[in-house]
Amino acid sequence: MASLLALAQAMADEGLQLEGRPWSETDAALREGRSEVLVLGTAHLSALPDTFDRTHFAPLLDRLAAWKPAVIAIEALGGAQCAYLRSHVFAYPDTAETYCPDPQPAQQALGLSQPQAEAQIEALLAKPVADRPAAERRRLIMLFLASGDPASAWVQWLRLPEAERAAGDALPAALAERFTKKRGCNENVDIAAALAARLGLERVYPVD
């Protein structure tokens, strides 16, 4: 009731009338412009052979980059969801093993739990900068892996200068190999993470 009264008062203040005007138009006049959303549907690119030429994605990435999304979401389970599934394995048998990446190697290397890694990510990304030192990006790679978000770890890897794409700082060689020896295609990496890095975004967002 209070929100309806507030809306009515705002309409009165703006001199808006409902009579003869659709409610949606009146409501839209009180809000900012609508967000634009683009949904890209693909087959799972993991079905492609390892020999597939990734340059075929270039025209698609060019068109998506021209649209300039501010946020990129992917079809994936987030780290917190996966942690829940693992703690409730009695109700969701084999689900985490099937759909969730293993964050334990990164968690053990950092000495952090999934929530602690996520908290550090939020703290680092809360400080916007034009660019980040390579050491900080390697730290973010590890934090994203520990949080259960490998696609965002790929964003950070791709934002490293090519000469810096190697183990070092917080990133041990055993975990850097997953980036340096990548095989096969994945839409969350070859499209979403590649696009995010190209646009200067810091991460993608798992949504499922």
Q: Top keywords for this entry?
A:
mainly alpha; 208 residues; globular; two-stranded parallel ribbon; 2 strands; 11 helices
What does this structure look like?
The chain is mainly alpha-helical. Helices cover 52% and strands 3% of the residues. It contains 11 helices and 2 strands. It has a two-stranded parallel ribbon with strand order 1-2. α3 packs across α11, α6 crosses α8 and α9 packs across α11. The radius of gyration is 21 Å and the shape is globular. The model has no long low-confidence stretch (mean pLDDT 89).
Largest sheet: 2 strands, parallel
Oligomer: single chain
Name the helix and strand elements from N-terminus to C-terminus, one letter apiece. HHHEHHHHHHHHE
What would the principal axes of the Cα set say about the shape? Answer: globular
| Mean pLDDT across all amino acids | 89
% residues in beta strands: under 5%
Q: Helices and strands: which structural class?
A: mainly alpha
Question: Which blocks of ≥5 consecutive residues have pLDDT under 50?
Answer: none
**Rg, please?**
21 Å
Our count of helices gives 11
Please list the strands of the largest sheet in the order they lie side by side: 1-2
- Tally the beta strands: 2
N-C termini distance: 33 Å
- Percent of residues in helices: 40-55%
In short:
The protein has helices at 2-14, 23-29, 58-67, 79-87, 95-99, 104-110, 114-125, 134-147, 150-159, 173-180, 187-199; strands at 73-75, 205-207.
